[in-house]
Amino acid sequence: MTEQAIPASPIEADLELYGALVDKEPQKPPRSQWIDVWQQFRKHKGAVFGGSFLLFITLAVVFGPFLWDVDPKALDIRNKNWRPIYQLLFDSEAKAGWAHPFGTDQLGRDIMAQMIAGGQVSMAVGWLAMGLALVIGSAIGVLSGYFTKLDFWLMRFTDLVLSLPILPLTLLAVTLFRQPLNSRFGPEGGMFILIVGIIGLTSWMQTARIVRGDILALKEREFILAARSIGTRSGKIIRRHLLPNVISPIMVSATLGLATAIITESALSFLGVGFPSDFPTWGKLLSDAVSRMQEFPERVLLPGIAISLTVLSVNYLGDGLRDALDPRLRGR
Amino acid sequence: MLTFTIRRLLLSIPTLLFISLVIFLLLQLAPGDPMAQVPLTVPPEVKQKMREALGLGQPIYVQYYKWLIQFFWVEPQVFIDWATRDTFLLGWLPDTHLSTFIDPDTGAIRPVQRAISWQTRSPIMDIVIQRMPQTLWVVGLSYVVGILIAIPIGIYSAYRHYSLFDQAGTFVTMVGFSIPPFFTGPLLIVIFSVSLGWLPSIYDTTHVVTDWASFKIQFMQMVMPVMVLALQTTAQISRYMRGAMLDNLNQDYVRTARAKGLKETTVVLVHVLRNSMIPVVTVIALGMPAIFGGAIITENVFKVNGIGQLLLTALFANDLPMVMTLTFIFAILIVLFNLIADILYGLLDPRIRYD
């Protein structure tokens, strides 16, 4: 007959009873959602590379003019047609040097300064047009997903805009409205407003559709019902409960929008309907260089590579964000 | 399905009307006078008469109505007349005379007034018909080439998921996505026309294929524009193909097919591929209009005188009727291919019925 050990105190007895339920290891501090997202994002090599390159390009065009303070519009006809610095590797006789690392164009303007100035315009157009498209798209998506009465008409409208031929219409609008806007805001400002406006107004449809789909599913959930049952108004529900929950599809479509905006702006400049000719953008630099690309291929390559790498890094960033923001994929 | 098709067809009419109205109003809002190019020596009263002849003084709705009549009533009549008169296919039918009328004053037979281009003073549709084959050849061929490359890549990278081929394929499609055609075009010209001298950099549309040698020239000049456009198509479609294959490869029916001893090629290329093609076919149909849009840039790079290049020159010359017609043709293409995509989806996937 074994003697049952008499517990010293009732508390110890409880501990023994529930021993299996106590964690063996010390408790981890709670993790926020954004730490999880960041850790998943870090696993995607392409996305990290894309994100850092985008950051680098943005910083380079913002702070570049302070480091490389050559005026991109300054003519220096004696030093025209310099080759880029790497040309010295193959050909020590080449007209190149550290004074102009990327060379100069046919009027002696420094190409590096032009690339920085062009990048500023291209990135600014990209970010602003993307922002405009996001605001319009999210607003229409939320309104049409949340208010059932508006849904039918807003979505028909979205379908109609989706079936507009975007590139021809953009070309049309830019050529037609260039004159009045130029006379009001100056040739550069007018064109900037016009291009940002047109790209923003013609690229919000995908965002609207995605946001609407998510809102439709979210508004049937219990926490919305709970919010409504304590008398929260629609505006507050949208701002406090719905918008934070659709932030991830909005971020993913933001990256796609940025890529499209940069490409569209460059395409317009390339076709000769973009900014005025002495106002450098990447597309403009590329299109100006095409006629002389046999002698100076680097003038096509440099802006082309800048556009392509930026867009590529934005696309990779979007890919990584999509994976990181999807809770079903996270943690795998 | 038939009711759905008919309903969609009917629904596309207001869509097209809305688009035409948008384009029309955009052109109306635009500043700029079509008479601006007329020399100053022309007296103002003559100028006023020219303006009236162009129908510029009339209210907007009258102008819009007249444009609609031109596009949807007069041009089809002209087309039917041409088809029964000159074409091989319908030439055996008795000649129709829909597009002519008898002048009440003189009794002579006169052709109806067609929409004319301000730039060339010839009927717009005639010019469009002249330019269409070049665009269709380059765009159509590039699309076919793109699909033919994309589908095997998509299948194989899904089948060997996360393999080296898949990683490389993903990278290449990302690059294809990101490099715009106005960069790949000049890049290819620098490499293949300038440095290597293999291919011509300008597309010669007057070239006629008569024998093997001239076919070879035609082939050489088509390679670059077709490949530039095909790169975009390939990137997009192979991504969709890969995604669709991946979705299907993990399905139960695939395991069943393997379990009953079917060969791996049969499982992948018959069972999985047929199911994966359903979304891909719709993507192919939906991407068609975008390719026409991209052709505007490619045609500009390689100097192909197709409809994209026509649109650009018309824009620069302020030739509004031509711009209006061409933009509307692009809109028709989009609506048409959306319709085709919807119907194909219903036909291919019996689970999807819109009724």
UniProtKB/TrEMBL annotation, chain A:
It is a multi-pass membrane protein. SUPFAM superfamilies: MetI-like (SSF161098). Gene3D superfamilies: MetI-like (1.10.3720.10). The keyword Magnesium does not apply. Residues 119-318 form the ABC transmembrane type-1 domain. Keywords: Cell membrane, Membrane, Transmembrane, Transmembrane helix, Transport. The chain crosses the membrane at residues 47-68, 124-148, 160-177, 189-211, 242-263, 300-318. CDD domains: TM_PBP2. It holds the Pfam family OppC_N. It is found in: Cell membrane. GO terms for cellular component: plasma membrane. One of its GO terms (biological process) is transmembrane transport. This is ABC transmembrane type-1 domain-containing protein. The lineage of its organism: unclassified sequences, metagenomes, ecological metagenomes.
